[in-house]
Records
---
Amino acid sequence: MSQTIWNPEMECMSRSQLETLQLERLRALVDYCDRNVEFYHKRLLEAKVTADKIKTLSDIQYIPYTTKADLRDTYPFGMFSVPTKQLVRLHASSGTTGNPTVVGYTREDLDNWAEQVARVATAAGATQESMVQICFGYGMFTGALGLHYGLEKIGATVVPTSAGNTQKQLKFMRDFGTDTIVATPSYCLYLAESAKEEGHPIENYRLKLGLLGSEGCTPEMRQEIEQSWGNGFFVTDNYGMSELNGPGLSGECRERNGLHINEDHFLCEVIDSSSGEVLEKGSTGELVVTALTKRGLPMLRYRTKDITYLEYQPCACGRTTARMHKVLGRSDDMLKIRGVNVFPSQIESALISFQEIGPHYQLVVRREGYADTLEVKVELIDGSVLQTYGDLEGLQKRIHDQIRSILGIEITVSLVEPKSLERFTGKAQRVVDLRNTEKHN
Ligand code: ZN
């Protein structure tokens, strides 16, 4: 597949050109927010920031952060810059508690959004010739329509099957010769399993490219998905969220060494999520994004709560834009152990490669003296290994070495009887942090 670049002018410019453009756009955005959104006007006034005070890109640090709570508090339209009659679309993100967050787009916003997705889709390998089935649910969720318009923009043939109805999805895939799929990683895997059960040979499918997103995907799961479809099926990751248009903020190219950010539209920073301090280039922390070109619902320094790091070395694909590493986890789930950031997802992806253990594990954090300790409790699938000391010790050591090499800190591994760890019906509670409760014992 070719390494076509959708917009070489914007995706391959020099760092200094890009930074000049970002600064110009940032100043215009601050001025726009100040004049058109009461919420921002007050915030900027309190912080004593005006557009002419922004002399360099690092002056962005004086602008206050915006959070999801700000959007909820101003529900539904309190942060919009224009009356709704000037908007051409609304979307909303599902709110599990309280108000959902509502986002609005001007005509210009939709055009920019389609441009951003067109770049991401092209980087992944989609072309004018692609036949793309979109298996995301259409509706208030931005995933489906976001990909839809970006893929139409590059001239691909879009098949908006939406979510569900697996038999029909598979029939269209065979009959239309669908070669590109937009889906969640888990649904893409489920489709492959269903295809095999249906009895049509997998060779009857022409799937070559997956633009998978909207949920996490470990490298191991990606490999499993690619193998289950076979035939050179290639999976790429892309990233975005409704507050920042939707998908299209960043996406992997064929090199798959991080997600290229559309930096002329999105100015990214990485901060320490507890102190709010901006971190040095290359550090791991929470991604904060200023949407330089968004107008209906402008966003200044939006805290994504996603943990990642940025890379600036040139990429073999020819794009010069910075890349963000695949999201490592949510700031809410992050554990700090002896000064090192640890995510349950990192441990999960280490455990998945061991066949002797099941999907259930627990992380126990303690403080002994002045040092934090991490115990990883893992459930065995077959309890008989507990009878053989040699096997047990060998397995324990392999798991230990694997996790230690990923995290870079010392840990202990305990193997426990099958079905002995607590089961959860909702979101699993993997972490038991005893550092504060045991402190005075
Ligand atoms: Zn690249």
Note: The pocket of zinc ion is lined by residues 253, 255, 260, 315, 317, 319 (CB under 6 Å).
---
Amino acid sequence: MKWTQDMKKLIAGNWKMNMNTESAKAFDQAMAKVDEKIVEWLICPPYPYIQHITNTKRGAQDCSAYYSGAFTGEVSASMLADIQCDYCIVGHSERRAEAHCETSDIVRQKAQLVIDNGMTAIVCVGETLEEREEGKAFDIVEGQLLKSIPNDTRPDNCVIAYEPVWAIGTGKAATSCDVSNMHNYIREILKSNVADGEEMRILYGGSVKPDNAAELLNIDNVDGALIGGASLKAEDFIAIGKAVES
Ligand code: PGA
């Protein structure tokens, strides 16, 4: 099915390296009755807890850039498809940063494997504070975006997440004006470079909370949110999704 702009906003939780069996199962129970009419809900737990997600779409936070074989500690895209993941995040800034040093080439390889295995890739892009202060935010995001998305990307197999690094986990979300300018810019890049690029969803991520969700989610070209800290409590996560209605 082709995604169109009047379809649902995607509210995606990225648990990062948090939660355990008990809290994951309790979270899933809390999601049993959420309204799915206008929101598509997604949870991306650490690998061991993915299969505890039964009441929303399920996703992974990363996958291997390799197909299969002797890659100790890696989890392949085909394994994620095998456990019925719908989505996989690739290129999160915490993986692009020094600890993992992922380049946009690696991110593109991962996105390709996600797509080849029938899932949707959530490709993250975003500038650091230093890059923004040097006036390079738009160039950095454009470069990451064009290098990270595979050639056969379409609105139904890829979602973009704009996550300014300086807004992640800091409690300070980007301003509506910054978000609007960057999302409009990304939309233009997608329109010129991707088939049906005007319909590809663009999520905002970085300190999204219940009290700023309505403002952020009502900006033009913000088609959902990628949520870290506030996705660890079902109550907060659900409140963010409900803000879509307001
Ligand atoms: P945050 O994280 O909501 O805790 O800022 C967002 C993310 O890293 O995806």
Note: Residues 9-245 form a domain with the TIM Barrel fold (CATH 3.20.20.70).
